[in-house]
Amino acid sequence: QVQLVESGGGLVQAGESLRLSCVASGRIFRISAMAWYRQAQGMQRELVASVFSGGNANYLDSVKGRFTISRDDAKNTVSLQMNSLKPEDTAVYYCKADVQSAPNTALMAYWGEGILVTVSS
Prior knowledge:
By secondary structure, the protein is mainly beta. It has strands spanning 2-7, 10-13, 18-26, 30-39, 46-51, 57-59, 67-72, 77-82, 91-100, 108-111, 115-120.
């Protein structure tokens, strides 16, 4: 099994910054994509940013230029630096990793439990 644990959430004012981190542990042979999703109250979960093992990253249009995703494969971590936060960024943020637990096995998606980010106006 693989566990993902997020940290770094909290309450900030509009315009401030937060850095989310997620560490994966357990039976890990290789991690393919790592990503951050978010779900605001009453809304569907949406993909915020993703990064592949080669370093290519993709972002939700509304966070481009404000958020930066990065990963450290040696530590099995993924981070999300969030700058110029807006009230509409308020949500529970989830870490996701596509993990191969052993050679010649399929990738499986694992999720963290989520961490709350609240941005006040």
